[in-house]
């Protein structure tokens, strides 16, 4: 799967980093960082983080999706 974040929407609160810390984290400058192609074992965590993002900035795409 692939992960993208729309940084025009992201407000950097870090809820995703709490929900799926293996995939999302806030760097020392306060910017959200993420693993763009996480292991399939992280799918549920990524999907949950995407659902819980208050501004819906996270997109989780299955392989083959545009
Ligand atoms: S939960 Fe959403 S708004 Fe908050 S840091 Fe993560 S991507 Fe950005």
From TrEMBL:
Keywords: 3Fe-4S, Electron transport, Iron, Iron-sulfur, Metal-binding, Transport. Transmembrane segments: none annotated. Gene3D superfamilies: 3.30.70.20. It comes from the Bacteria. Pfam families: Fer4_15 (PF13459). Its cofactor is [3Fe-4S] cluster. The keyword Lipid biosynthesis does not apply. The keyword Coiled coil does not apply. Ferredoxins are iron-sulfur proteins that transfer electrons in a wide variety of metabolic reactions. This is Ferredoxin. It comes from Prauserella oleivorans. The lineage of its organism: Bacteria, Bacillati, Actinomycetota, Actinomycetes, Pseudonocardiales.
């Amino acid at each position: 799967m692939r992960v993208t974040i729309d940084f025009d929407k992201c407000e950097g609160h870090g809820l995703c980093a709490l929900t799926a810390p293996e995939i999302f984290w806030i760097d020392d400058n306060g910017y959200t960082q993420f693993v763009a192609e996480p292991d399939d074992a992280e799918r549920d965590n990524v999907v949950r983080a995407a659902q819980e993002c208050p501004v819906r900035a996270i997109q989780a795409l299955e392989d083959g999706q545009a």
